[in-house]
Amino acid sequence: MKDLSAIFEPRSVAIVGASANPVKWGCIIPSNILMNSFDGGIYLINPKGEEILGMEVYKNIKDVPGEVDLAIIVRPSETCLSHIEECVDKGVKSIILLSGGFSEAGDGGTALENRIVDVVRGKNVPLVGPNTMGIYSAPVSLSALMPPVTPKKGPISFISQSGNIGTNILSFGGEMGLGFNKFVSCGNAADIDIADYLEYLDSDQKTKVVVLYMEGVRDGRKFMDVAKRVSLKKPIIAYKAGKTAKGVMAAASHTGALAGSSKVYQSAFKQCGITEASTVNEITDLARAFLYLPLPKGNKVGIVTWGGGYGVVATDACEDAGLEVPELDEEVLEALDKILPPYWSKGNPVDLVAMMEGVIEGKMPDILDILVKSDGIDAVIASGYILGGINPTNQKTEGFTTFYDEVNRNNVAKIIELMKKYEKPIIPVTTVADQRAVQRFSEEEIVIYSSLESTANILAKMFGRYKYLEW
Questions:
Q1: Average pLDDT, whole number, for the chain?
Q2: CA dist list (Å): 421 to 47, 373, 378, 414, 466
Q3: Mean pLDDT throughout 54-74?
Q4: What do you get for the CA distance between the two ends of the chain, in Å?
Q5: Pick from 292, 314, 342: which residue ends a domain?
Q6: Which residue of 151, 197, 442, 446 has the smallest Cβ count within 10 Å?
Q7: Of 100, 133, 166, at which residue does a domain stop?
C-alpha cells in the first residue's frame, strides 16, 4: 500500500509557482490555504523572490530551510519536469501537480507525463495528478483547492476524477449538513490511482463513507480487489460518468481516462459491493442515508401520507424501484383504527385524509410507531410528516411559523427515537420541493427528501447494501 500520509496530513506545504497576481492559481491556492488556517508551515516558491501575501518567498524549493512534506506545483506543463526533479532532490515527501497539458492533451503530453512518473516512482514520492484541482484534509485544516471552497468537516471522504464536480459537491454537501474528512481531485491519476486512494481510506478511522466520481480506471482488477475489501467496512458510493459514446470521448479528453462500457462497470460495482448513484445529485442523497439511517433488512415499505395522491405516487415509486408495498397485518389495522377516523384508507398506504391534527397533535408519531414495529414492515416513508414551506424567519407570521417549526422539530425527534428503537429506516418527505426543511434539520441524525421517487430509489439501494453484507 502506498503511504499517502504526507499528502493528507503534511506538516509543511510549499507552493511552487507562487504569485502575487490574485487571478493566478499561484496566488489563489496559498490564499485558500491561509484562509482555512492550515496547521503547518507554508513556503512560497518563485524565482523572483521578494514577498507575496506578506510572506517571504524562496527562489527555489532547495532554498527552503527544513523539510517539506508536500509540494504543490502550479507551473506550465513544459516546465514541470524540472520542478519535479528539484522537489525530489530536495527530499520532498509528496507532490501535487495541478498543471494540465499531459495525457489528456495527446501523445506529447502522455510522453511528458510518463517521464514525470518515472522520476517520482524512482524515489518513491507519491504524486497527485497531474491536471488536478487539489486536495482537502480536515485533520490538518488543509484546503489546497483551486476554488475558494471551505468544506464542512465530517466523516465522508471523496475521490473525484473531476475537480469541478468534486468541489461543487463539497460546497453543496455542506449546505445539506454533510461534512467531509478528505477530498482529492485525482485528475489524470498518473501515479496514484483510485484504488490507491481507496486502500489508504480503508484504514482511516475518521472516514465512515467513501464517495467516488469516476470516469474510468486503468487497472480494473486492482480496483475491484481493493473495493471489495473496503466495502465490507464502509459504504462506497460511485457515480460513473462517460456512459455514452460521446461521454467516453469527453472523458478521454478530460482526464485521459479509459471510460469503458457502463454495463461492465455496473457489473463490477455489484460484485464489489459499491452502491452506484444514478445522478450526481443522488451522491449526496445516498451519503446522507448511509450516515444517518439503519439499513432496511427487507424490501417491504409502509407508507404514510397526508393526502391520497402522494400515496399513489409513493406506491408507484416503490414498485418501480423493486420495493414492495405490502398489505397490513390485522393487528396493525386494528391499532390504526383506534387512531384514525372511520373513513381512512384501511390499508397501505395509510392515508391521513388531510387530517392536519394527525401531524400536529401527536397522532402521526403513533401511526409511525405502529407501522415501524410491525414484522411485516422493513422501512417507512412519511409524506407530509415534515411540513415544507414553513419559513420561521417571516416576521409577519412569526407566531404561526414558530408554532409549525416547533411541530417539525418534535416530529424529527420522534423519528430519530423510533429509528434507534426499532433499527429500521424512516424517511420523511416534504410535501413541496422545499430545501429549507432539509437544511433546517441538517445537523440532526435524520434524512429528509423532497422527492418520493428519490426516496424509493435510495431505500432500494440501501437494501441492496444490506443483502451484500449478509452474503
A1: 90
A2: 64, 9, 13, 10, 19
A3: 96
A4: 27
A5: 292
A6: 442
A7: 133
Q: Is 194 exposed, middle or buried (0-12, 13-18, 19+ CB in 10 A)?
A: buried
- Mean local confidence (pLDDT), 130-158: 95
- pLDDT of 254 higher than 50: no
Please return the burial class of 144, using the count of CB atoms within 10 Å of its CB with bins 0-12, 13-18 and 19+.
buried
Residue 138 lies in a domain: no
Give CA–CA dist 469/471, Å, rounded: 6
Cβ pair 135, 180 in contact under 8 A = no
Instruction: Give the range of the structural domain holding residue 327, as residue numbers without chain letter.
Output: 294-470
Stated pTM of the model: 0.92
**Do 156 and 122 belong to one domain?**
no
288 in the same domain as 169: yes
88 within 8 A of 29, measured Cβ to Cβ: no
Indicate the pLDDT class of residue 126, thresholds 50, 70 and 90: very high
Domain count, the chain: 3
Helix (H) or strand (E) holding 201: helix 194-202
Same domain? 309 vs 447: yes
Length of the chain: 471
Among candidates 271, 381, 245, which has minimal Cα distance to 323? 381
Tell me, yes or no, whether 385 and 306 share the same domain.
Answer: yes
- The answer to whether 12 and 66 have CB atoms below 8 angstroms apart is yes
Give the separation between CA 52 and CA 56, rounded to whole angstroms: 7
- DSSP-derived 3-state class of residue 233: coil
Report which residue type is found at 81.
Answer: L
Higher pLDDT, 246 or 26: 26
Q: What is the pLDDT of residues 269-279, one digit of tens each?
A: 999 999 999 99
Per-residue pLDDT at 459 = 98
